[in-house]
Amino acid sequence: MRALAVQAFAHSERAARALADALGAPFDPIGLHVFPDEEILPAVPTPARTVIVYEPLDHPNSKLIRLLLTADAWRRSGVERLVLVAPYLCYLRQDAVFAPGQPLSRDVIGGLLGPRFDRIVTVDAHLHRTEDISAVFGGARVDNLSAAPALAEAIGGAGAAPLVLGPDRESAPWVQALAALLGGDSVVLSKTRIGDGMVEFDFGDLGRVEGRRVVIVDDVCSSGGTVLRLAARLSQAGAARIEFAVVHALFGEAVRRRMGEAGIARVVSTDSITHPTNAAPLAGLLAAALKDERAP
Ligand code: R5P
Fold first, then answer.
1. Interval between CA 222 and ligand 1 midpoint (Å)
2. Atom 9 of ligand 1 has which residue's CA nearest to it?
3. Is residue 179 domain-resident?
4. Atom of ligand 1 nearest to the CA of 171
5. Statement to judge: residues 9 and 127 lie in one domain
6. Residue 190's domain spans which residues?
7. Are 147 and 121 in contact (CB under 8 A)?
8. What are residue 48's DSSP bridge partners?
9. 214 contact partners, CB below 8 Å, separation of at least 6
10. pLDDT reported for residue 295
């Protein structure tokens, strides 16, 4: 049996091949049959002792079922070690029961994936109320990598040093990392979510913004409510140029257009999710973390 292979479904083949190349490992596509009633039947390729499966978990509902069935097939075909590379990990935003009647989705998903994978590798997971991500996945090893260097390189430090701005206190680590890498200063706001797409901020004193290049940084952008509200206020405060660096681009074309209308001159994202704004490739970061999976 081969020592190591990177495997993925067709929709992730490009990024998975880039990871396989960076690791110097073979890439195998995973087959998928869809029945007329929409049940699915994955078919795993020739096994390896260690299989790294690349599956970003945006649009998670169908992908999760696919992954659970495939994990069973891998184990049955003799795979000893299964490593899930999910640059975007889903359902971590429901990390508390925010209102009666809701589930704790984070723990449900952790309970599904944790027992099936020996290791999970992800990037800037949403850990607002999660102290120990490994505990969420039943004690499996979880590597939560930082995309700050890749984002900093993509957004660039040319010209005047930017003011790097984060929407909430949880954004502080990557705001500070980006400010240090770009040679700028930073400000971290405080945010209250009122509903989907509706947020309020405590803006405090935005005197520093006038005439500056401002780079807004966030881990996730979905409805766009957060960044659009920020951009409107920053324009009012006299920002000379507004840019947006986001790790996981979950938003659609309509939100992208509204960003332009709101005066955001440039949006860059990592390729954790395939998106037109992708400018920061993660293959090198992921491959460096996965070096220890290579056979000696
Ligand atoms: C929230 O806590 C996250 O860090 C992001 O700010 C949030 O998920 C962005 O979502 P939206 O684009 O829907 O405002």
1. 6
2. 221
3. yes
4. 4
5. yes
6. 148-271
7. no
8. 2
9. 162, 163, 164, 165, 234, 239, 241, 242, 243
10. 65
* Distance from residue 274's CA to the centre of ligand 1 (Å): 18
The sign of the torsion formed by the CA atoms of 61, 41, 13, 82 equals: positive
pLDDT in tens, 111-131: 999 999 999 999 999 998 999
**Res 296: pLDDT:** 59
Q: Which two tokens stand for residue 115?
A: 């027992």
Report the candidate in 145, 114, 134, 118 with the shortest Cα–Cα distance to residue 289.
Answer: 145
Atom of ligand 1 nearest to the CA of 199: 14
Residue 161 confidence (pLDDT): 87
How many other CB atoms are found less than 10 A from the CB of residue 14? 11
% of the chain beyond a pLDDT of 70:
98
Residues 7 and 45 sit within 8 Å (Cβ to Cβ): yes
Is 157 found in the same domain as 118?
no
For residue 225, is it within any domain? yes
Q: Does the pLDDT of residue 206 top 90, yes or no?
A: no
pLDDT confidence of residue 54: 98
* CATH code, 88: 3.40.50.2020
Query: Would you place residue 174 in the very low, low, confident or very high pLDDT band (cuts 50, 70, 90)?
Result: confident
Query: Total structural domains in the chain?
Result: 2
Catalytic annotation on 291? no
